[in-house]
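Data card: per-record layout.
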Amino acid sequence: MDQLHAQLAEEVDFSIIRYAQCWEDADVLLRALEVQPGEVCLSIASAGDNTLSLLAQDPGRVIAIDLSAAQLACLELRVAAYRHLDHEGLLELLGVRPSGRRRALYARLAPSLSGAARAVWDARPKIIDTGIVRAGRFERYLELVRRYAINATHSRWQRDALFVRRTRAQRHAFYDRHWNNLRWRWLVRLLCSRLVMGHLGRDPRFFKYAEGSVSDRILDMTLHVLVDLDPVDNPYLHWIVRGEYGTVLPHALRAENFDRIRANLDRLEWRLCDAQTYLDEAPPDSIHRFNLSDLFEYLSEADSQRVFHSLARAGCRCGRLAYWNMLVPRHRPASLAARIRSMPELSRQLHKAANTFFYSDFVVEELV
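The structure for this 368-residue chain is written out next.
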C-alpha cells in the first residue's frame, strides 16, 4: 500500500460494512463500458453488485479490488450465494425477499467462504437474520432519511402515489403539488448536509476535496429522478422511499441475469488493495474496461493524475473508463489527451439516464 492509501486507511475505518448495496446504476455502467466477450475488467468491489453485473457480459476475467476487507466479504458472500443457492434463495438471504430461513441459507454456503469472509459474517448473526442488504452504514443512514425526511413529510398515499405510472407533465404536477413541500426541503438540507452525511452515512474524510453543497445537489437530482425519469422503474428510489425493491430489482438481482452471472463466477477474482497499487503491478495494455466507482472523490488533484497515468499505462487501446463524481470534479488530465479521449456526449446522456441521484456527473472516457 502506498503512502497515500496508508494514510487513508489510518483516517477511515475500513473494518465496517460501509455499503451493503451498490448505489451506482449498473444499467448505466454497462452501457458505458460495453464489455465485449473475453475482455478483462477491473472493478472497485464496493458491495459487489456491479462487479457481478459485469460477469453477465461474458468477460474473460473480472478483477475486483477494494481497500476494505468488509466490502470484499460482501462480494464473497454474494458469490457463494450465486453458486450455492437458487435465485429465490439469493434474494431471501440478501434481504430482498421476506424469509425466516436466512441462517439456514447462510449455513449452506458458509463452508465455501474464505476464513476472512466467514469471520466477518459469523460475527454478525443479527445482520444475517435481518438481511445483508440492510447491513451497511450508508443503508442505515438512508433509513434515517426515510423516517425523518420522507415518512415525516409525506403521507402513505403520497408515498404510494409516487410510484403510479404518469406522463412527464403529470409527474411534474405531482412533484409540485404533493412532494416538494417546505418541510421536505428543509429536512433534506439538514439530513443530506455534508456534516450529517459525512458522520452518519459516508465518512467525513470522503468530503475532503468536495466542492459545493451536498444537499443542494441531492435536491436538484431528486427533481430529475422524480420528474424527468419514471419512479416506477427506479429500483434505488423504491428502496429509499419504501425500504424494499418490490418487483423492481437492480441489474445483478434480476432473474434473467442470475444464470449468466453464475456461469461466469470462476472468471472473478478479488484482492484487498488500492487502485494505484494494483495498476502499478499490472502489465501494460492488460485491462480493457474499468469500473472505477467514485474513486476520484477521495483523491487530491495530484493523486488523481497519478492514477490516470497508471490507467493509461495498464489500459488497452480502445478500452473504456467509467466513474462517478459527486462533489469533486475529476476528468482525465490534459496531459493525457493523446491517450485518454473524453466522451462528453455519451457521458451526459448516461448521466441523465441514471436512476441513482447522489452524483453530479458520470464520466466515460476511452483509451486510444
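Known properties of this structure: The chain has a mean pLDDT of 92. Residues 3-135+251-367 form a domain with the Rossmann fold fold (CATH 3.40.50.150).

See the next section for split statistics.
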